[in-house]
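Quick one, T. Sequence first:
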Amino acid sequence: MARDQIYAGEHADEAPFEFSEAVAEVFPDMLERSIPGYADSIRGIGSLARRYVKAGSRCYDLGCSLGAATLAMRHNITASGCRIIAIDNAPAMAARCRAIVAEDDGEVAVEVICGDVLDAEIADASMVVMNYTLQFLQPADRASMVQRIADGMRPGGLFILSEKVVHNDPAIDAMLVELHHDFKRRHAYSDLEISRKRAALENVLIPDDIATHEQRLEASGFQHVGIWLKNLNFASFAAIR
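Structure tokens:
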């Protein structure tokens, strides 16, 4: 696994963050060292796939990056006749994901598409995963995206939405940010790297608060909504259609 040093060194890129070839190359390391609870979320997605994916249905990994959630579903689905559609708009991510899936020995059919999730047709889905993707969409597009997911799901289907979140109390939010920075320091990111990445993500990753997520999910027609996993300022919501 290549080491993430994108924001280290004298000549580190100071452009806004994008899912480039350089990011794709180090992405597994970046996730492991940047998102508290990430590995738990992937394991949980596998466990939930065993319980919620129904025979003959589709599963979606929207903003699939290198396919961690795709493979978690693939290796835990026990229902027959299922298909996973993994979508990412970054060519470097989609190409690497396609290669990873091709080398994987899972039996569930997987199709990797390079495209915008806003254009994705979602139909007959018993499980949809959107891991740290909605936060990169423009806020004006988020409600319609969630509505399209809900409309494309079977009754009883499960939507997993993982996001960085903000707290409405500024003091608590500042505390969570500092604890997140401590998490990164423990994983050998320097203060300079932390500062540079935070600047690169400004106006690119725009997080919502928990209430906004829950209200959006409920307004889209999900019957049951709640947080199933949270670590610092990262939360994963479960929404049942």
